[in-house]
Amino acid sequence: MTTFDTELDSRGLSCPLPILRAKKSLSEMNSGQVLRIVATDKGAPNDFAEFCRKTGNELLSSTAQDGEFVFLIRRR
């Protein structure tokens, strides 16, 4: 498991709130730091993949278990 610097709990939030909160968290982090996000929105895997593609941040992992999605994103 990759270590992370900051964690964002966006369980129960619908799009676009998980992305907006992740964007805010990443803006407060230094380049190379890792953000761990926990979400329950079924669209989150596609949303975060697209978000990383557009912003240049690196999606290190995307996993799903028991209705929750966990993402690790490295800030560009």
Any overview of this molecule?
With 76 residues, the chain is α+β, with helices and mostly antiparallel strands. The chain has one domain: Translation Initiation Factor IF3. 30% of the residues lie in helices and 34% in strands. The protein is built from 2 helices and 4 strands. It has a 4-stranded mixed sheet, covered by helices on one side. The protein is globular. The relative contact order is 0.26. The model has no long low-confidence stretch (mean pLDDT 96).
Describe the secondary structure blueprint for this structure.
Elements: E1 6-10, H1 17-27, E2 34-39, H2 44-55, E3 58-65, E4 68-74
Parallel strand pairs: 1-2
Antiparallel strand pairs: 2-4, 3-4
Q: Which labels suit this protein?
A:
single chain, 76 residues, Translation Initiation Factor IF3
- Classify the beta-strand content into a percent band: 25-35%
Strand order of the largest sheet: 1-2-4-3
CATH architecture: 2-Layer Sandwich
End-to-end gap: 20 Å
User: What gross morphology would you assign?
Assistant: globular
Q: Mean pLDDT score, rounded?
A: 96
The low-pLDDT segments are none
- Going by CATH, the homologous superfamily would be TusA-like domain
Give a short account of the largest sheet: 4 strands, mixed
Number of helical elements? 2
Total count of strands? 4
Q: Give the helices and strands as they follow along the chain.
A: EHEHEE
- CATH fold group: Translation Initiation Factor IF3
CATH structural class: Alpha Beta
Quaternary:
single chain
